[in-house]
């Protein structure tokens, strides 16, 4: 097992994608000071592999998913922040919130180009200002959430309340569902 070597994110900008670094610098200091970052093996950036390798509870991890809602010729991009133990209700709740006929996860190349972040490291901090950031209320309840840093080579740790207080975040009850039991 490897452990996370968390340091204040403001003191380690090299561990953050450029849009994340810029958003962190513009953030209210009372929030920015509560965000920490740690380097990780980029091959272990995917949530399940990361949690196993770094002895982190899956329930303490949050995922930021880029979605695209379409109505006619109009496509609306948004981000959904959900616990790693849940699944975003893209075809139900998200589709309705985006007033879209269809909603789906954005293509990897589109998500990377639009965010300026690496796939597998996308985070709500530093997303385009025009996007809605939809966050499941359960994420806000985490004492400490682990989420991407914009890079696959690091992770951010911050209280769920700080995630919920980021500019543009909308708390949504029922944004995510617990997975169906198997077996």
From TrEMBL:
<protein>
    <recommendedName>
        <fullName>YbaK/aminoacyl-tRNA synthetase-associated domain-containing protein</fullName>
    </recommendedName>
</protein>
<dbReference type="GO" id="GO:0002161">
    <property type="term" value="F:aminoacyl-tRNA deacylase activity"/>
</dbReference>
<dbReference type="InterPro" id="IPR036754">
    <property type="entry name" value="YbaK/aa-tRNA-synt-asso_dom_sf"/>
</dbReference>
<dbReference type="InterPro" id="IPR007214">
    <property type="entry name" value="YbaK/aa-tRNA-synth-assoc-dom"/>
</dbReference>
<dbReference type="Pfam" id="PF04073">
    <property type="entry name" value="tRNA_edit"/>
</dbReference>
<feature type="domain" description="YbaK/aminoacyl-tRNA synthetase-associated">
    <location>
        <begin position="42"/>
        <end position="163"/>
    </location>
</feature>
């Amino acid at each position: 097992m490897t452990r996370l070597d968390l340091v204040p994110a403001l003191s380690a900008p090299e561990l953050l994608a450029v849009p994340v670094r810029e958003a962190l610098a513009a953030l209210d200091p009372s929030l920015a000071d509560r965000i920490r970052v740690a380097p990780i093996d980029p091959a272990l950036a995917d949530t399940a592999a990361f949690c196993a390798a770094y002895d982190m509870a899956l329930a303490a991890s949050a995922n930021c998913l880029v979605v695209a809602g379409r109505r006619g010729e109009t496509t609306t991009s948004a981000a959904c922040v959900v616990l790693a133990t849940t699944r975003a209700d893209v075809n139900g709740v998200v589709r309705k919130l985006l007033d879209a006929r269809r909603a789906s996860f954005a293509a990897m190349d589109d998500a990377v180009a639009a965010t300026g972040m690496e796939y597998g490291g996308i985070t709500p901090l530093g997303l385009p200002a025009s996007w809605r950031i939809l966050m499941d209320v359960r994420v806000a309840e985490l004492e400490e959430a682990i989420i991407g840093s914009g890079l696959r080579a690091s992770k951010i740790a911050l209280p769920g309340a700080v995630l919920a207080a980021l500019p543009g975040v909308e708390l949504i009850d029922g944004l995510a569902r617990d997975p169906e039991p198997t077996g």
